[in-house]
Write a structure and sequence with these properties.
Length: 259
Protein backbone atom coordinates (compact mmCIF):
# COMPACT_ATOMS: atom_id res chain seq x y z
CA UNK A 1 0.00 0.00 0.00
CA UNK A 2 1.46 3.35 -1.02
CA UNK A 3 1.61 6.12 1.55
CA UNK A 4 0.44 9.69 1.02
CA UNK A 5 3.24 11.88 -0.33
CA UNK A 6 5.01 14.65 1.58
CA UNK A 7 6.13 17.93 0.02
CA UNK A 8 9.76 16.93 0.63
CA UNK A 9 9.52 13.63 -1.29
CA UNK A 10 11.86 13.22 -4.25
CA UNK A 11 10.26 13.31 -7.68
CA UNK A 12 11.11 10.60 -10.20
CA UNK A 13 13.47 12.99 -11.99
CA UNK A 14 15.23 13.96 -8.78
CA UNK A 15 15.59 10.32 -7.75
CA UNK A 16 17.03 9.41 -11.16
CA UNK A 17 19.60 12.14 -10.63
CA UNK A 18 20.69 11.24 -7.12
CA UNK A 19 20.30 7.44 -6.98
CA UNK A 20 23.51 6.51 -8.89
CA UNK A 21 25.51 8.67 -6.50
CA UNK A 22 24.01 7.00 -3.45
CA UNK A 23 24.80 3.53 -4.69
CA UNK A 24 28.50 4.17 -5.18
CA UNK A 25 28.99 3.12 -1.55
CA UNK A 26 26.73 0.07 -1.75
CA UNK A 27 28.28 -3.37 -1.53
CA UNK A 28 27.10 -6.41 -3.49
CA UNK A 29 28.05 -8.68 -0.59
CA UNK A 30 25.47 -9.74 1.97
CA UNK A 31 21.70 -9.76 1.79
CA UNK A 32 19.71 -7.17 -0.18
CA UNK A 33 18.61 -4.07 1.77
CA UNK A 34 15.28 -4.49 3.53
CA UNK A 35 14.09 -0.92 2.95
CA UNK A 36 13.88 1.19 -0.19
CA UNK A 37 16.79 3.65 -0.39
CA UNK A 38 14.52 6.26 -1.94
CA UNK A 39 12.26 6.16 1.12
CA UNK A 40 15.28 6.57 3.38
CA UNK A 41 16.29 9.69 1.46
CA UNK A 42 12.72 11.00 1.59
CA UNK A 43 12.78 10.58 5.36
CA UNK A 44 16.04 12.52 5.68
CA UNK A 45 14.75 15.43 3.60
CA UNK A 46 11.56 15.37 5.69
CA UNK A 47 13.56 15.46 8.95
CA UNK A 48 15.74 18.40 7.86
CA UNK A 49 12.80 20.44 6.57
CA UNK A 50 10.34 19.83 9.41
CA UNK A 51 12.86 19.73 12.26
CA UNK A 52 11.37 16.67 13.95
CA UNK A 53 13.38 14.38 16.22
CA UNK A 54 14.78 11.13 14.88
CA UNK A 55 12.39 9.03 16.94
CA UNK A 56 9.42 11.16 15.89
CA UNK A 57 9.69 10.46 12.16
CA UNK A 58 6.32 9.33 10.76
CA UNK A 59 5.72 5.58 10.93
CA UNK A 60 5.10 5.31 7.20
CA UNK A 61 8.85 5.80 6.70
CA UNK A 62 11.36 3.03 7.46
CA UNK A 63 12.37 2.75 11.17
CA UNK A 64 14.24 5.80 12.44
CA UNK A 65 17.22 3.65 13.45
CA UNK A 66 17.63 2.50 9.82
CA UNK A 67 17.46 6.08 8.54
CA UNK A 68 20.00 7.22 11.14
CA UNK A 69 22.27 4.33 10.16
CA UNK A 70 22.43 5.57 6.56
CA UNK A 71 22.85 9.17 7.72
CA UNK A 72 25.95 8.20 9.75
CA UNK A 73 27.28 5.74 7.19
CA UNK A 74 27.28 8.29 4.37
CA UNK A 75 28.68 10.90 6.76
CA UNK A 76 31.65 8.76 7.79
CA UNK A 77 32.64 7.75 4.27
CA UNK A 78 32.17 11.23 2.78
CA UNK A 79 29.29 10.29 0.48
CA UNK A 80 27.16 13.33 1.39
CA UNK A 81 29.93 15.69 0.33
CA UNK A 82 30.53 13.80 -2.93
CA UNK A 83 26.79 13.83 -3.72
CA UNK A 84 26.72 17.56 -3.01
CA UNK A 85 29.68 18.28 -5.30
CA UNK A 86 28.36 16.25 -8.24
CA UNK A 87 24.83 17.67 -7.89
CA UNK A 88 26.29 21.17 -7.72
CA UNK A 89 28.38 20.63 -10.86
CA UNK A 90 25.32 19.43 -12.78
CA UNK A 91 23.31 22.45 -11.65
CA UNK A 92 26.07 24.85 -12.71
CA UNK A 93 26.20 23.29 -16.17
CA UNK A 94 22.42 23.51 -16.42
CA UNK A 95 22.72 27.21 -15.55
CA UNK A 96 25.20 27.78 -18.36
CA UNK A 97 28.29 27.91 -16.14
CA UNK A 98 31.45 25.83 -15.99
CA UNK A 99 31.32 22.82 -13.61
CA UNK A 100 33.98 24.35 -11.35
CA UNK A 101 33.53 27.92 -10.07
CA UNK A 102 36.22 30.57 -10.48
CA UNK A 103 34.79 32.95 -7.86
CA UNK A 104 33.42 32.43 -4.34
CA UNK A 105 32.25 34.22 -1.19
CA UNK A 106 33.02 33.32 2.43
CA UNK A 107 31.15 34.22 5.62
CA UNK A 108 30.03 32.77 8.94
CA UNK A 109 26.77 32.66 10.88
CA UNK A 110 26.53 32.21 14.63
CA UNK A 111 23.62 30.06 15.81
CA UNK A 112 22.42 28.82 19.16
CA UNK A 113 22.87 25.16 20.05
CA UNK A 114 20.76 22.82 22.12
CA UNK A 115 21.94 21.52 25.48
CA UNK A 116 22.97 18.29 23.74
CA UNK A 117 25.93 19.89 21.92
CA UNK A 118 29.28 18.38 22.89
CA UNK A 119 31.09 21.70 22.49
CA UNK A 120 30.09 25.32 21.98
CA UNK A 121 31.43 28.81 22.55
CA UNK A 122 30.29 32.39 23.06
CA UNK A 123 30.37 34.86 20.18
CA UNK A 124 30.92 38.18 21.96
CA UNK A 125 30.09 40.18 18.85
CA UNK A 126 26.71 38.57 18.16
CA UNK A 127 26.04 37.72 21.85
CA UNK A 128 25.26 34.12 20.93
CA UNK A 129 26.34 30.99 22.79
CA UNK A 130 26.63 28.17 20.33
CA UNK A 131 28.44 27.40 17.09
CA UNK A 132 29.42 29.14 13.86
CA UNK A 133 28.48 27.90 10.41
CA UNK A 134 31.34 28.80 8.15
CA UNK A 135 30.49 28.50 4.46
CA UNK A 136 32.05 29.25 1.09
CA UNK A 137 29.51 29.65 -1.73
CA UNK A 138 29.69 30.16 -5.49
CA UNK A 139 27.89 32.88 -7.44
CA UNK A 140 24.71 30.76 -7.50
CA UNK A 141 24.69 30.83 -3.71
CA UNK A 142 25.16 27.12 -3.06
CA UNK A 143 27.82 26.01 -0.57
CA UNK A 144 31.10 24.65 -1.83
CA UNK A 145 32.49 23.91 1.63
CA UNK A 146 30.79 23.87 5.03
CA UNK A 147 32.59 23.95 8.38
CA UNK A 148 30.89 24.12 11.79
CA UNK A 149 32.94 25.11 14.85
CA UNK A 150 32.52 26.75 18.25
CA UNK A 151 31.24 30.33 18.08
CA UNK A 152 34.14 31.81 20.07
CA UNK A 153 36.73 30.95 17.36
CA UNK A 154 37.75 33.84 15.11
CA UNK A 155 36.70 33.91 11.47
CA UNK A 156 40.12 34.80 10.11
CA UNK A 157 42.01 31.93 11.74
CA UNK A 158 39.38 29.32 10.91
CA UNK A 159 39.23 30.50 7.31
CA UNK A 160 42.75 29.24 6.55
CA UNK A 161 41.81 25.66 7.42
CA UNK A 162 38.62 26.02 5.38
CA UNK A 163 40.64 27.23 2.37
CA UNK A 164 42.76 24.09 2.44
CA UNK A 165 39.61 22.00 2.03
CA UNK A 166 38.13 24.38 -0.55
CA UNK A 167 41.12 24.27 -2.90
CA UNK A 168 41.46 20.51 -2.54
CA UNK A 169 38.10 20.22 -4.31
CA UNK A 170 37.91 23.48 -6.29
CA UNK A 171 41.30 24.48 -7.65
CA UNK A 172 39.96 26.87 -10.31
CA UNK A 173 38.90 29.64 -7.88
CA UNK A 174 40.75 32.90 -8.55
CA UNK A 175 38.89 35.42 -6.38
CA UNK A 176 37.08 35.26 -3.05
CA UNK A 177 34.93 38.04 -1.62
CA UNK A 178 34.72 38.50 2.16
CA UNK A 179 33.94 41.08 4.82
CA UNK A 180 36.30 42.93 7.17
CA UNK A 181 36.47 40.01 9.62
CA UNK A 182 38.85 38.28 7.20
CA UNK A 183 41.45 41.05 7.01
CA UNK A 184 45.01 40.03 7.85
CA UNK A 185 47.03 36.98 6.92
CA UNK A 186 44.30 35.27 4.88
CA UNK A 187 44.92 37.48 1.83
CA UNK A 188 48.64 36.71 1.64
CA UNK A 189 48.01 33.02 2.38
CA UNK A 190 45.55 32.74 -0.50
CA UNK A 191 47.78 34.56 -2.96
CA UNK A 192 51.07 32.81 -2.21
CA UNK A 193 49.53 29.36 -1.77
CA UNK A 194 46.78 29.27 -4.41
CA UNK A 195 47.31 32.42 -6.54
CA UNK A 196 43.84 33.50 -5.45
CA UNK A 197 42.87 37.10 -4.69
CA UNK A 198 40.92 38.06 -1.56
CA UNK A 199 38.70 41.11 -1.99
CA UNK A 200 37.32 42.72 1.17
CA UNK A 201 33.91 44.36 0.82
CA UNK A 202 33.85 48.05 1.82
CA UNK A 203 32.37 49.01 5.16
CA UNK A 204 29.15 50.96 4.60
CA UNK A 205 28.81 54.04 6.81
CA UNK A 206 25.20 54.86 5.96
CA UNK A 207 22.42 53.72 8.26
CA UNK A 208 19.83 51.13 7.31
CA UNK A 209 19.98 48.07 5.11
CA UNK A 210 22.42 48.24 2.22
CA UNK A 211 23.06 45.62 -0.46
CA UNK A 212 26.80 44.96 -0.70
CA UNK A 213 27.88 43.80 -4.19
CA UNK A 214 28.65 40.05 -4.29
CA UNK A 215 28.39 39.75 -0.49
CA UNK A 216 24.58 39.62 -0.62
CA UNK A 217 24.81 36.18 -2.23
CA UNK A 218 26.26 34.46 0.82
CA UNK A 219 23.84 36.33 3.09
CA UNK A 220 20.98 34.99 1.00
CA UNK A 221 22.32 31.46 1.52
CA UNK A 222 22.10 31.91 5.29
CA UNK A 223 18.51 33.05 4.72
CA UNK A 224 17.82 29.83 2.81
CA UNK A 225 18.89 27.83 5.86
CA UNK A 226 16.04 29.34 7.86
CA UNK A 227 13.48 27.64 5.61
CA UNK A 228 14.47 24.30 7.16
CA UNK A 229 13.45 24.02 10.79
CA UNK A 230 16.27 21.62 11.65
CA UNK A 231 18.72 24.41 10.78
CA UNK A 232 17.09 27.27 12.71
CA UNK A 233 18.97 26.08 15.80
CA UNK A 234 21.94 23.71 15.84
CA UNK A 235 20.34 20.65 17.43
CA UNK A 236 23.22 18.26 16.68
CA UNK A 237 25.42 16.72 19.34
CA UNK A 238 28.50 16.75 17.11
CA UNK A 239 29.63 19.52 14.77
CA UNK A 240 30.23 17.00 11.95
CA UNK A 241 26.52 16.06 12.11
CA UNK A 242 25.62 19.75 11.91
CA UNK A 243 27.73 20.02 8.75
CA UNK A 244 25.98 17.01 7.24
CA UNK A 245 22.56 18.52 7.91
CA UNK A 246 23.63 21.62 5.97
CA UNK A 247 24.82 19.50 3.05
CA UNK A 248 21.57 17.50 2.96
CA UNK A 249 19.49 20.70 3.02
CA UNK A 250 21.59 22.14 0.20
CA UNK A 251 21.29 18.94 -1.87
CA UNK A 252 17.50 19.14 -1.54
CA UNK A 253 17.43 22.78 -2.65
CA UNK A 254 19.63 22.06 -5.66
CA UNK A 255 17.52 19.08 -6.72
CA UNK A 256 14.40 21.26 -6.67
CA UNK A 257 16.06 23.51 -9.27
CA UNK A 258 16.60 20.69 -11.74
CA UNK A 259 14.65 21.07 -14.98
Amino acid sequence: MERDSYSTDLTDKQWETISPRLRISSSKAGRPPKYDLREIMNALFYLVHTGCQWRELPHDFPPWSTIYYYFRKYQKNGIWHLIHISTHQDLREQSGKTPEPSAAMIDSQSVKTSQMAETRGFDGNKKIKGRKRHIVVDTLGFPLVVKVHDANLSDGKQAIAIMETLFFWFGAIKIIWADAAYRGELASYLWYTFLCKLEIAPTLKTKGFQVVPKRWIVERTFGWFQWDRRLMIDYERQSCSAETMLYIASIGKMLRRYK
